[in-house]
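Progress note, project year one: complex with pyridoxal-5'-phosphate.
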Amino acid sequence: MLRRAVDPLPPLFGLDERIQQRLPWMSLIARPTPCHRLEHLSRRVGADIWIKRDDLTSPLYGGNKARKNEFLFSDLAANQRNAVLTMGGIGSHHCCSVAATASTLGWPAMLVQFPQPVTEHVRQMMRWQQLWKPQRVLARAEWTLPFAVLRGWNRLEHLPRARPGLIWMGGSSPVGTLGYVDAALEFAQQVRCGDAPMPARMYVAAGSGGTLAGLIAGFRLAAFPVEVIGVQIVPSPAITRFSVAWLANAALELISDAAPDLEIPSVSRAEVRLEDRFLGDGYGSPTPEGVAARRLVWELEGIPLEDTYTSKTMAALLALSQPQAGPALFWNTYNSAPPPPLPPWQDLPQAYHQFYRD
Ligand SMILES: Cc1ncc(COP(=O)(O)O)c(C=O)c1O
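Model obtained:
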């Protein structure tokens, strides 16, 4: 696995110096993340399969959210915020990443969460989030989330000296999406300097859509003609080609505002490729082909996936990639840092104990 000693600044800043001056950013990740061939898996399935290791973005808590947090937390700090509220499912990796980052900055974090199918992985994630001692509010169901957000906001606001700011679900605001515009530029650079081949197709999990939107926008910006397939892990209309194109264009507009005379492309709905055939029964419900893909990748490559996002994405790659078309790339968005010793579930607020009783 090759890591080049390159400039640790986001490649996005290399486009124009005003971008660095005008866009919020703080250094939270190790870049570039490695990119390599999955030798054993490729041999087993008779294809040329590569991986982008965003599981290694951060030893603290890796995965895709750390890239978004570089822009999101800096934006909050620039707006004099010093506490953060975000929301997600009870097993949310996003919530874990936000709680981890807030804790390193010494900020209180409030997680407003809704129930999802309870698997062992979800139980582990709730304890992992608890490691960073966030405040929590549990909504009864996803549709009651707005009321729970108000309760959480109120509690956070009443902490001494707290000036709370909001990070949207999944970190998929235009500012958060910049993290993946930058990731696309990073990958294009890796291909251009020979660390990876030009993939025929790339597969990435699509939930709140910021990761996919940022990649599409960044590849347009880099004039890098790769086909990106967003594998849906939520049903439409929670994600649509419209919402992804909107986010991509909103992120590109931020770059254009920072450097107005730079030629910035726009993304049309027709350019967004969403694949919904691997979703199964819905968000957080494991699928048999996803579970099989997760086991195969673990057995052959020793890389952990999980059943909400990345196993479904790998299942899509294995089913859809055409070996004769050229290399397929799996963009790994799940943290692979092993869990540190986690607090017992009894440390979670009482409302969460129901998820640990069979
Ligand atoms: C492991 C993992 N992969 C992919 C995603 C989806 O990213 P996005 O919400 O940007 O679509 C998430 C979101 O929570 C995630 O936790």
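Residues 63-64, 93-94, 170, 172, 205-212, 309-310, 333-334 surround pyridoxal-5'-phosphate (CB under 6 Å).
The chain has two domains: 12-63+174-332, 82-162.
No further modelling is planned for this target in the current period.
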